[in-house]
Each structure stands twice: as C-alpha cells, then as structure tokens.
Amino acid sequence: MQKVNDFVIIGSGPAAMSAAIYAARDKKSPFVLERGNMGGLAATISKIENYPGFIGTGAELMQTMRSQAESFGAKFDYGEITKLAQSDAGIDLEIDGDEHLLARAVLVATGTERVRLGIPGEDLPGVSYCATCDGPLIRGQNVLVIGGGNSAVQEAFYLLKFCDKATLLVRSRLRCDDTLRERLEHEPRISVELGVIPTKIEQADQELSVISEDGRTFSAHNIFIFIGQRPATTFLPAEVLAEDSSIVTDKNYMTKIPGLFAAGDCRYESVHQVVTATGEGAAAAVAIRNYLK
Questions:
Q1: Residue 16 to residues 38, 47, 55, 237, 282, Cα–Cα distance (Å)
Q2: Which of 100, 129, 241, 293 is the most exposed place for a label (fewest CB within 10 A)?
Q3: pTM of the prediction?
Q4: How many CB atoms lie within 10 A of CB 117?
Q5: Taking a C-beta distance cutoff of 8 angstroms, is the pair 146, 225 a contact?
Q6: How would residue 164 be classed by pLDDT, with cut points 50, 70 and 90?
Q7: Which residues have CB under 8 Å from 40's CB, separation 6+?
Q8: Under DSSP, is residue 271 helix (H, G, I), strand (E, B) or coil?
Q9: In this predicted structure, what is the pLDDT of residue 70?
Q10: Are 69 and 156 in contact (CB under 8 A)?
Q11: CA-to-CA distance for 75 and 121, rounded, in angstroms?
C-alpha cells in the first residue's frame, strides 16, 4: 500500500514556510514541494522594508524561514504538482506528470506567478522577469522596465545599483504608491514614458527595442517586465477556484474539498503582502492540526 503523508505543503513562499514552521514544531512532519525557486517570488524581492523586525533581501528572509522550518524537522523537495484530486485515501497529488503522493491534508501556498506580455520577442536573450536574478549582469548599461505598479518602480530603483539609466514604459498611468512616486520625482536616472503599449520586442546590434502600438520605439541593452501577477493554481479543480483563479476558502482556510487548504497570495482576497502571507500560513497550519485530530 502507498504511504499516506499527514501534511503536504505545495509552494515555498512566506505562507508555506510559516506553515512548515508551525507544523514541524507540532510534530506533524510537513513535506514541502516546490516546482521552481525555493522561497517563491518573495525570494526575488530586492529589498523588503515593511516586514516587522527585518530589513533585507527577500532571499535572505526566505532562507532564514527555511532553515528555521528544517531545524524542527520539515522536509523540502522539488516537484511540480500537475494534478490534484480527492480519493478514498485522502488527497492524491500527481507530481511531474507521473509520480503520485497521497496526503491526509494539503496546504496550497503557491502564491502567484508573473504575467507575460504575450507578444513576439519576449523570450529573447536580455529580456527578464527578475531584477534580483539578472540585475548584476547589466553593469554600466541602460535598461527598459515595462510596468507602472509598485513592483516595476521598486525594481527600477534596484536596477540603478548596476545600470546607468532606467526607463519605465507605462501602459496608461503610474499605479505605484505615493512614497514611490515621490522618490521617482527626485531620481533623474529614471525616466517615465506613458501610453506605451508594447506590440513586439526586436533585437539588433546587441540592443533590444520595444515597439509601441503608436509606432514609438524604445531601445536599451536589457528589458525587465513587471506587469502584474496571477494565482499559480492551474493544477487545481475548478470547483475550488474563483473567477480570477484564486482559491476560495472558509474562515478556517479550507476549500470545498475536505483536507484541502489554501493560504497566502493564491487565496481569494489575499492582501498580497509578505507579512499577511506568513500570518495566513500560521493560521492554516493551526486549522490543519485541528483537522488532523
């Protein structure tokens, strides 16, 4: 007979790490599965300033959380959940399209994934969705940053550590908060171009160019895209999802499927902050402890 795990956590961002810490301390032996970068998108944040008691990079915070969870006995591994279904033995998780894992309780804490432009050329070398990952490779160059929200503006400031100039290409208007807007006004190395609707990205002579719908062309050595995020929930059945693909839960973080819980940015009406994700992860772990009893 196949072994049934007590508690499996899908994802490794703040909600997942917090739940792993709580569950491991409670001797529930959580097993954490991550399909990509340990720490999720939080690990790519260049600087976190609004997490109580901590100022630093997202990678540093997530590594600290993982070490703490591991110190209590949490186990981590890589694997992508390609299908999830209810079974007589619990919840059946299909991993990488062929392996199967059974669990009495599952916490989905997959967070969000970055939205792509969906235009020709966005997969060219030099186009990136992660300033923390690729910023150190652009020293002394000029960059284009596509997006007008908090993430795009924050990453533009981070990229100034490595590049000479950054140009923000904004579809309509800036949507960042007032603090970032004020910082932009006092930073001459960042310029803002409004009304830019990218239709394609081209490469020539070691330069990349964004072609706008109105015919304008913007060129630089590298392009960084930050136009939004969406819940990473494509593997879940439609019955637990809202229209925006986020996960609907009750007040105890459980979905319509018994034993299936959700927490963090992938959950419906989440605040999308690291600090609230960790809180939800802790609350979900307590709810799962009570469910397993």
A1: 10, 20, 20, 20, 9
A2: 293
A3: 0.81
A4: 18
A5: yes
A6: confident
A7: 11, 12, 13, 14, 16, 34, 62, 110, 111
A8: coil
A9: 97
A10: no
A11: 39
